[in-house]
Amino acid sequence: MSDDMELDCRAVLADVWLMLDGECDDATRARLQHHMDHCSPCIEAYGIEEKVKGLLSRKCGGDRAPDSLRDRLSIEIRRSITITEIKTEEA
């Protein structure tokens, strides 16, 4: 795998919803997909998130959250992943 194709699992998992929502560009999608093709924990996490997204879509009637809410949630998700990783490294 070339250097530009290597991704950290945390980065992949932080961006998995962008990929599921079709909100990432082709280059980003290719990098994420390449990583998941070679990382079974990430592809498993992707599958779980895909099921959650499908469930939410069915139960919420396809309503779209306001952009401001989506932005805040994205920031909080990234922050929680970073905090979890820092706590894990300190332990």
Notes on the structure:
With 91 residues, the protein is mainly α. It contains 4 helices and no strands. It has helices at residues 9-20, 26-37, 40-60, 67-90. Helix 1 crosses helix 2. InterPro entries: Anit_sigma_mycothiol_RsrA, Znf_put. It comes from Nocardia goodfellowii.
Mean pLDDT: 79
N-to-C span: 31 Å
Oligomer: single chain
Using only C-alpha atoms, the radius of gyration works out to 14 Å
Based on secondary structure, the structural category is: mainly alpha
Number of strands: 0
Main beta sheet strand tally, sense and closure: none
Gross geometry: globular
Strand content: under 5%
Q: How are helices and strands ordered from N to C? A: HHHH
Helix content: over 70%
Low-confidence stretches: 1-5
Annotation field: number of helices: 4
Protein name: Mycothiol system anti-sigma-R factor
Pfam families: zf-HC2
Domain Putative zinc-finger: 9-42
Organism: Nocardia goodfellowii
